[in-house]
Input
Amino acid sequence: MEIKVLGSGCTKCKTLEKITREVVDELNLKASIEKVEDIQKIVEYGVMVTPALIVDGEIVVKGRLPKLDELKEILNK
Amino acid sequence: MNFLKKPINILCLFLIIWFLCYSYLSSFSNFIVDTILNLESGRHFTEAFRFFIFEVPKVFLLLILIILVVGIIRTYFSAEKTKEILKGKPLFIGNIMAAFLGIVTPFCSCSAIPLFLGFIEAGIPIGITFSFLIAAPMINEVAIVLLIGLFGWEVTLIYIFTGLAIAITSGWLIGVFKLEKYVEDWVFQVKSGSILDDNQKISFNERIAQGITAVKDIVGKIWIYIVLGIAVGSGAHGYVPEDFLSNLMGKAHWYSVPLAILIGVPLYSNAAGIIPIVSVLIEKGVTIGTALAFMMSVIGLSLPEVIILKKVLKIQLIAIFVVIVAIGIIIIGYLLNFIY
Output
């Protein structure tokens, strides 16, 4: 699984990266996590509001911080 | 209970309870002060305390209701939809729409740049983009609640309409002067990925749930500022003699509005943090126009924002943007000082 956390330096973006790592560890998922901070790249993904989460090329969350349970459900698919 | 399982029912129940609480609030706080605590009415402490235990629940009730409603409305909007709506709109009408959409589109200030790039990439003129970016922070639901609570509907409506007017005219002027050349060149080369908008249909129940989340998030973050702000306000309410206030209020100097803005621009705070300061300023005799100008310059124009914008705008355009918005705020400050 390829996970990308999109977001510049804002608090919510950092939190999203942190909880994503936690969930991946907790669920023992085989995943690479990359933080994308370059705004130009973020826009290229078609995202205008951060934080956003991309899993295997698909935008699964954007513009908000998902709850922990929701994030587990998304990543467990 | 099955009845309480549906958010729509909870919402109705909430509205009824809300209305009852709000209408009996004054009797209830008087009952606590006069009957339960049996404080001597008319004394400074009693009246300050009465003000405090009336204002705190009142502001929180307003806060919960308005954030909930705005939170539900916002689920109908997204940055992508706003972009689609604004595509190909002519100047001025586009500016008006952008300013209104700025209020209801959910996004945080840290998304200003990706949003700017997305709009430009979609061919939305910078003037219209600016109207959106100016209105969004300037007209803020928390500020609306606090203004209703502290100064009433009239001041609040003036705040909303003058805020919109500044956003519309500033963006319109930037559009008229065709300032595209002051946008960094790389901005126009950005290619946005095709946006597969998650056209997920969300139920009304889900919308209510999101509204409730917004209430929890925002109230959880700002309640302390509000309690402190009201505490300071009620202290001044009970203790500062009125002739002292009116003496100070007479000292509205011509330079007070521009001075307030000069102080306000380098400061950065959200609406919740700034309102307690504004309420103290007003209690200390600063006129409403000056205080609102100060507030608008703090939340609408800020140094950190300017530094972020530097990534996409050349310095000339940033200067023009700051000057136009500042002039708008000055005009409104004077206007309000003149009316009140």
User: Anything to note?
Assistant: Chain A has a mean pLDDT of 87. The first strand of chain A starts at residue 2 and ends at 6.
